[in-house]
């Protein structure tokens, strides 16, 4: 029920798309909103004014107030940015989409969302596989993984603790995070 309005809106918008120009406009607005969210997260990071703050964890969430939902939206924007990066012949658009992709990845890191990182990992594997099926859209397989790896040192201090897979019966999280 929570996302019913979003799905209904997506169906209505999809019915309005007639050609590639309409797709460019809609995806451009979507990416602009995500960039605004990522910039708001960068602002939270730089000012230290996170949406969720505690002794052990600081999480940014600009779009909906929930870091996990924010990460979900940002992960959804990465394939769009990659699509327009590979489809455009203009250098300015390519550079802009590369910057958008970097901002979205950095925004996902700042949310500290474990699900966001799993989805980001799936995208970094899935996009190169998708692009390799169509020779007209080459996207180097290592590029997205390399970008994510380069941004890891910029992540907040609890990033490793929150994204490490825990063995059964053991917790790697600080004690206060284990309480219900």
Which percent range fits the helix content? 55-70%
Order of helices and strands: HHEEHHHHHH
**Count of extended strands:** 2
The biggest beta sheet is recorded as: 2 strands, antiparallel
Q: Structural class, from helix and strand content?
A: mainly alpha
Low-confidence stretches: 175-180
Instruction: Classify the beta-strand content into a percent band.
Output: under 5%
Strand order of the largest sheet: 1-2
Bulk shape: globular
DSSP summary: helix tally: 8
Q: Give the integer mean of the pLDDT values.
A: 75
Q: Over all CA atoms, what is the radius of gyration?
A: 18 Å
What is the distance, rounded to the nearest whole angstrom, between the alpha carbons of the first and last residues? 25 Å
Describe the structure.
The protein is mainly alpha-helical. Helices cover 68% and strands 2% of the residues. It has helices spanning 4-16, 20-47, 67-87, 91-111, 114-132, 141-151, 159-163, 175-178; strands at 52-53, 58-59. Helix 5 runs antiparallel to helix 6. The longest helix has 28 residues, at 20-47. It is globular. The two termini are 25 Å apart. Residues 175-180 have low confidence and may be disordered.
List keywords for this structure.
8 helices, disordered C terminus, single chain, 180 residues, mainly alpha, two-stranded antiparallel sheet, 2% strand
Topology readout:
Elements: H1 4-16, H2 20-47, E1 52-53, E2 58-59, H3 67-87, H4 91-111, H5 114-132, H6 141-151, H7 159-163, H8 175-178
Antiparallel strand pairs: 1-2
